[in-house]
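User: what does the whole thing look like in 3D?
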Amino acid sequence: GAVVSQHPSWVICKSGTSVKIECRSLDFQATTMFWYRQFPKQSLMLMATSNEGSKATYEQGVEKDKFLINHASLTLSTLTVTSAHPEDSSFYICSASLLAGGLYGVNEQFFGPGTRLTVL
Amino acid sequence: QKEVEQNSGPLSVPEGAIASLNCTYSDRGSQSFFWYRQYSGKSPELIMSIYSNGDKEDGRFTAQLNKASQYVSLLIRDSQPSDSATYLCAVNEFNTDKLIFGTGTRLQVFP
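Assistant: Here's the predicted 3D structure for the full assembly of 231 residues, as structure tokens:
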């Protein structure tokens, strides 16, 4: 259980084009989805938190007009990188939050396989 | 600035040994603690979660939590070359579902 998929797994595009990345929770309904970016040899950087039916909450320094997030349902969130430039080339990873079992009422995050974006 | 600190490594251990990975955090309000494993070029995989002080064991993995010392550790018994990866410590931000990640410790298990 707790499987998260992402599509596409990699994409190469020209500078100035837009790229859409899909994130799906396959076997559970996610209370919240998150979008991260990871540059080589660096840790994960949270870009935004996404809840179904509401606007995403972006982290400081992340341009909301450049990284458009749509959370259409409890199992689907999309990230669109608009007018992509070479500096946007990175590994984009989504995660979906699932309420853990037991007494703690804690959410655990499960990651998708990631999308490697290369902007030429 | 809420932080999670990890030694970047690499931590090199022989096959069959115990690997000990450590993590400290600054947010005293954090209540949930996680260890993720990330192979090179792949996304993180949740391997352990711990919420209360003490030890939690799952197979070859043991997570240890000491909230008073703001310290989390992960022990890997009978280390295998396939355990070679970067291990990320993650701590929830108080009153949110957001996770704060450490920079990770690279573990190398040699035959």
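In plain terms: Chain B touches chain A through 21 residues (CB under 8 Å). The mean pLDDT of chain B is 94.
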